[in-house]
Write a structure and sequence with these properties.
The chain has nine helices and 18 strands. The termini are far apart. It is globular, with a radius of gyration of 25 Å. The chain is α+β, with helices and mostly antiparallel strands and about 400 residues long. The strands form four sheets. Strands 9-10-11-14-15-18 form a six-stranded mixed sheet, sandwiched between helices.
Length: about 400
Amino acid sequence: MSDPSELFRRVLAHVEDLHLLEIGRDELMYAAIRGMVRSLDPHSDFLDPAAYRGFREDLSGIYGGAGFQIEYRGGGYEVVKVFPGSPAERVGIRPGDEVLEVDGRPPFGLAMSDLLHRMRGEAGTVLALRLRRGEEPPRTVRLVRGHVEAPTLESRFIEPGYALLTVHYFHQGTAARIDRELRALDGRSPDRLRAVVLDVRNNPGGLVDEAVAAADLFLAEGTIVTAMGRRQARDREHSARPGGRWESLPAAVIVNGYTASAAEILSAALRDNGRAVIIGSRTFGKGTVQQVVELLDGSALRLTVARFYTPVGVPIQDNGIVPDVTVADGAEEPDRPRTLREADLPDAVPADDDAPAIFDAAASIEDVHVRIAYQILRLQERLRPQPRAPMP
């Protein structure tokens, strides 16, 4: 077999000498490196200096663009999250849309970094996208790029004492913000916080260290996640540290098929350590570790170096997280007549007007997943052993 390095030099010389277009050697070398790295797996990539700057913007969560996130799924690029109030939301882009064209050019053969670079740009510039959703015919949308700040976290009360935290992405500082939000909600609760629902549906991941730190807030001890690579020197176990501020706060986690990567790590850590019930549908199953290696010219390698394993030793890759309570995405209540109650009977005796009114908080929750999570937490509270009164 001939020397591969000599073969590469000959090919490079022929391209420089014979190709119709004159292409700089630096550009050819970047293309060669990019092709080599992208052939390894779907998540390894070579980022030239411009692409690497865009990658760092992703981690900060602030950039100029359309306001949605994509993942490579099923042979194409699919929208997995649309940010509230973004240009993408205003033109009707939704999770599940497949990107067929960007400004008239198909994304076939492009790595994620290249596609993101095409879709981003200065605020005020126009972006044209051709999209397809399931079996629907393709459609074209035009939007004006804006200053996008990817939301990290939203919070509200389901009812006093029961909080809902929606975690959109694990950016820098997400774990600290979760802690701050819970402290603020705790301070606004008449009886302090009694339980929390963590909603990580459509959360594509982000920084693994932030997910580990977020899980640590709810754990007193135990393994959070283990990374195992080809060489044992790369193996690493992340464990909880004693004194997690919310280690005794009852919790539930809502997931779906767009829950991936770091969000799967958080979900598995709380489930396997007995700290939370998982509700929803099976998660995406992105369980590999990418290490970023910065290079001298401002470019970087993003290489897959290990797999993630849940605290009980199950690989997340390809398996995903199977919920404790399965609720299909877009679940609807059965369309059936309302059951008659005593109050519906003719001449029924009315309720005691002086008695306190009954408010069914669950009945007012439109999101089926949140409603089930809330009901489970309420049931757990009722079944929790109560301290016995001292004997007289």
